[in-house]
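Appendix C. Worked example: Aldose 1-epimerase
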Amino acid sequence: MAITKKTFGQINGHDITRYTLTNDKGFQVSCLDYGCIITEILAPDRDGLLENVVLGFDTWEEYGSNPHYFGAVVGRFAGRIQEGAFTIEGTDYQLAKNSDGQHLHGGPGGFHAAVWKTKMIETENESIVEFTHFSPDGEEGFPGNLTMTVRYIVKNDENQLTISYFANSDKTTLLNVTNHSYFNLSGDFKRTIVDHQLTIPSGHYAELNSDMLPTGKLVPVEEDPLFDFRKGRTIREGTDSKHPQIELVGGGYDHPFLLDKEVRPVIVLKDEESGRSLQVETTEPAVVLYTANHIGGPYSFKGVAAQNQLGLCLETQGMPDSIHHPHFPSAILKAEEAFESRTVYRFV
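Step 2, the predicted output written as structure tokens:
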């Protein structure tokens, strides 16, 4: 096991540091103290060849403002909040409207744009980078002085990354965090993800309106087969369709799926050609599937031109805009209560 670090760039006089966690099998996770961004994950294919399986850049300058949140931890609230407004315990709050009149992913100054304090922890069986960020009362409009801790954990004997989240606030607030990595199991982005096969143990997805907000309707997937991933299906089956919900979000998926409680929630992503498989286990109630419908542009990832569907996000989190839908799992964090969440990404 090993953790190494080196300077990756600089912002506002602060050095940006890149940390790399490597186990004895060569499995490797690299991340930054800026936004907890995961820049690279090296995972083996069926023949043991280690290649990168997440979208990321080689230089700090290429990240720029990171408008697509590549690899970052997002919060205080992942997803959208209608008009950036909500009420808790009789008090009204107004957040930044940073996405067509809605609040998105914690606002422009959210967790993804913070330089986090870091600590490296090495044990006999694990390498850990621990990130800590203090978000003061009123930051981006959210109530409460919030202390957030994120741990990236790599085990010596398993090709897996565990992300653990811990938080507390001195006022009742909203908290809904996730990691926004874009996975592509082909290895070094040889192909898009449209032929990846995905399994999600979910009987319901959230219908979206034209503002990309949940309408409140949880649609049974047996009534909408293109959203039924319970037995596995390729992404292409959806991206090639004219389904109004798929066309609404740009020719793919950008939808929350409520995970079934009756079974252990294991999400499985497979690329048959490389032989790579990713298993995702989480304590969160939902996952947002985003198939990178809008990331095409005049830039590249490690020499590969950016294009739509070059990766997909599996954002394990609470439901977007849950504060306005009482039948959704709550994202309210009570004052002085402890928040804990964990997601495991296992490559097999």
